[in-house]
């Protein structure tokens, strides 16, 4: 069974879904042994969903020793209840449905500004890049705005988050370790100064809080009892999660759309499908492919004995293509109605920023259909990032200015 899983191969990283299908049909609770490390790989929807809910599988123990403690100690991603529950109450207030819905006008304006800039870039060089000129400016502009970070710091924040992202992927962590630790030191200092400014100018005492950082500062003295370490780790994690996930979802989603011209035409003829289309993009090729837990005691998973201390890899992307849950799962269907995908995880660790990610993706997709009816993307030009945990694109060239009316519209803004 060892040959069922070859995660370091270029073939797998380019398209992992055939491997996920083989695992799910031949060995859905697969005991893998790579580089002397024994772990379990789950690929069925029922097993993945159950694992994400199981309190015997710990997120804390899954933390890699190669990651800087300043980023993991107090980070909600690596916590279990009751610490996780306490930290999540703080984030839930900042990302509740009412708060996110109130951001709709601001994000819609940012979407239009982002498209304007992308079209101006195209005028200068003949194309724009979906990753760097659409996804990144939108996601980073949204999350940094919520956090109250200056717009002019965007380039630095982008470089730091890109360097830190390798820490989440076993196939990339060693080559990028030095740069990641340097980025960790710099971004910790950056957020530390941002907190100090809010304390010195009195903005941290305002009610309601002026921004997300002020809300975290206030939480230090509230019932949540947020520590200074938790404040910094939560700030950095929120920036990374809010930026990387949306950027990858937008780029991979548009690539899938242009790989399926019938669905592209369907969306252009039925723009009201933007919401379900974005959900299908998330299901079909999710940014976060898997999550790793560690057994805190001996347990059984579908008849297999998992020993205390062993890692359990829940493959969200494989669960999203399980025919037992999704009819015709390899079909990209923007009108899919029953779409309970696991791309935002499940259970206690369900993504607290899911509503914000959905709002950005849906608004951008709607704006693209409305403003760029002639958008052209050649799927063969896509450049994929290496990695097995975070799946995304490094580049995706596009052209939208096929008619003079777009030039006029951009010039008038």
Which key phrases capture this entry?
413 residues, alpha+beta, five-stranded mixed sheet, two-stranded antiparallel ribbon, 17 helices, 11 strands, globular, disordered C terminus
Cα distance spanning the termini: 59 Å
- The side-by-side strand order for the widest beta sheet comes to 1-2-8-5-3
Please report which band the strand proportion falls in: under 5%, 5-15%, 15-25%, 25-35%, 35-45% or over 45%. Answer: 5-15%
How do the SSEs run, as a string of H and E? HHEEHEHHHHEHHHHHHHEEEEHHEEEH
Total count of helical runs of at least 4 residues: 17
**Shape designation:** globular
Structural class: alpha+beta
The largest β sheet comes out as:
5 strands, mixed
What is the arithmetic mean of pLDDT? Answer: 90
List the quaternary state of the chains.
single chain
Q: Compute the gyration radius: what is it?
A: 21 Å
What is the helix content? 40-55%
3D architecture notes:
By secondary structure, this protein is of the alpha+beta class. Helices cover 52% and strands 10% of the residues. The chain contains 17 helices and 11 strands. It has helices at residues 10-14, 17-26, 45-53, 69-72, 83-94, 97-102, 104-125, 130-147, 154-165, 177-200, 212-219, 228-259, 261-269, 274-284, 316-319, 354-371, 404-412, and strands spanning 29-34, 37-42, 57-58, 128-129, 290-295, 299-301, 304-306, 311-315, 383-384, 393-395, 397-398. It has a 5-stranded mixed β-sheet with strand order 1-2-8-5-3, sandwiched between helices. Strands 4-11 form a two-stranded antiparallel sheet. Strands 6-7 form a two-stranded antiparallel ribbon. Strand 6 (299-301) and strand 7 (304-306) form a beta hairpin. Helix 9 crosses helix 10 and helix 12 (228-259) packs parallel to helix 16. It is globular, with a radius of gyration of 21 Å. The model is unreliable at 403-413 (pLDDT under 50).
